[in-house]
Amino acid sequence: MGEVKVMKSLKNIYQKYLGVGFFLGFFLVLLTYFTLSEQFAIRAPNAVSESLPNAVLEASPVNPVAKQEEKSPPKLEDKRKTKDTTEKVDPVKEESTPSTNQEQVKANERPPVSDSTPSTIKEEDFKAFETLNPVHEAKEICDTQSPNSDTCDIYGDVRTHGVSSSILLVPQNPMRNPEPHEWKIRPYSRKYMEGIKKVNIKQLGSPEQASPCTIKNNMPALVFALGGITGNYWHDHTDILVPLYLASRKFDGEVQFLVTNIQGWYIGKYNKVFQKLSRYDIIDFDKDDQVRCYPHVRVGIKMHKEFSIIPSLSPEGYSMVNFTKFMRSINGLPRDAPISLRDNPGARPRLMIISRRHPRKIVNLQDVIQLGERLGFEVVIGDPPFNVNVGEFAKEVNTADVLMGVHGAGLTNCIYLPTNAVFIQIVPYGNIEEMCKIDFGDPAEDMKLKYIEYRITVEESTLLEMLGKDHPVIKDPASIHGWEKVAEYYLGKQDVRIDVNRFAPVLSKAMEYLRE
Ligand SMILES: *[C@@H]1O[C@H](CO)[C@@H](O)[C@H](O)[C@H]1NC(C)=O
Description:
Layout: H1 3-14, H2 20-36, H3 38-57, H4 64-82, H5 85-89, H6 100-107, H7 123-132, E1 139-143, E2 151-161, E3 166-170, E4 182-185, E5 199-203, E6 215-216, E7 221-225, H8 233-248, E8 256-260, H9 264-269, H10 271-277, E9 283-284, E10 292-299, H11 320-330, E11 350-354, H12 365-374, E12 378-382, H13 390-398, E13 402-406, E14 422-427, H14 433-446, E15 450-455, H15 462-467, H16 472-475, H17 483-491, H18 500-515
Parallel strand pairs: 3-5, 6-10, 7-8, 7-10, 8-9, 11-12, 11-13, 13-14, 14-15
Antiparallel strand pairs: 1-2, 2-3, 2-10, 4-5
Helix pairs in contact: 1-3, 1-6, 2-3
């Protein structure tokens, strides 16, 4: 009955593997049928004329895959005799034609159910999984070329074993993988970060090598590391929260986090973010001796650039505006836009000054407050100590229309500002404009904040009185090289005395933005 279809489907699916040898082998099989089946003899000419010319044109050297396929039909027969539970699992079943060979071909494409592990996956689960991941043949997509982060996406029958830092891809039964590959990925967003253990991703040579699943899952998993240089509020976001959002938001909670180098304080501090990104238990991967099976495991989280997102690198098109909106929404922050002075001409917009203690303190804070009030702002001081509840401080920031502060991690709170609010970074003296722009200026623009930079002159810096005008740190900042020196002097010893006459136009500009 279905001979023509058989030829077609084989042609379509194995076109690139069709070799001369395969063709000859197949022809032998045809001949056998020819002599055995009269019915077939009537239809055979159609089949041959339809498929042979293409097959010959696209013939490539004989390869093992084609040979294997040649031999597989008998296996299929065996399998079908014993196959009753697996049939339920087959997502292709519904739309499949009655052709046995076609079914067999497609059966090889579906996520395999290993012989050693009786399937508990129900058809509905597969459908749910398919909608999440249309690609479910066994494969890895690894990116080790990006400048910041290494990542691998592994699809198929993927098994994790935390204590051995292993992610194993099981070949689809009965396939063999004669040259299994292996990758080692440091699942932190900065791939050169020391002290972060690498995860081994391995293809297995054959299904028999796989340990049986102790836990079967239908959702994907994401493996990533905490620690690194987190603990600094800006790095908490740059190194983890933004990359984690990029990697997991698309799953809408249907993803399990396998965390290596787990840090309880971090998960506690950002528990709202974790709860929103994943509905499942967070697994302490270093201590996990379960064999967890997933249809898809992502290893590593990607940093596009410092404290920001490059939408063209995000398959979902996420931007920093999406991220800040997400962060506001999980903290229940109501304001998505600053006050409009056009609609509320008499209103006093709120200016929040993030205040630091030494270093990088504004020593004449009172002058700046007075200036702000004179120019028509309601001025509030934000002073977030390390252990402040993130949500509480976020609420205060969200009430501001203008946020200002000297370069430092506290400015990371700009993510809680309404989109289009004004953000003023005070850049300390010392040839560090570029760094300040990368850390906050560019990200602020990506968040669609109105960004203004105010550069501290040597006269406004307390380093002048501390070191004298002839010190190289004062006279020639360009000669001060290396992060350590920069950190020691310009970030570590400097306070600022803002020249209010020079600063007034900056606040006026902020007011102007709110009038737009
Ligand atoms: C991201 O933001 C853009 C515009 O702000 C919006 O159109 C888009 O739907 C957002 N994407 C997601 C996934 O939220």
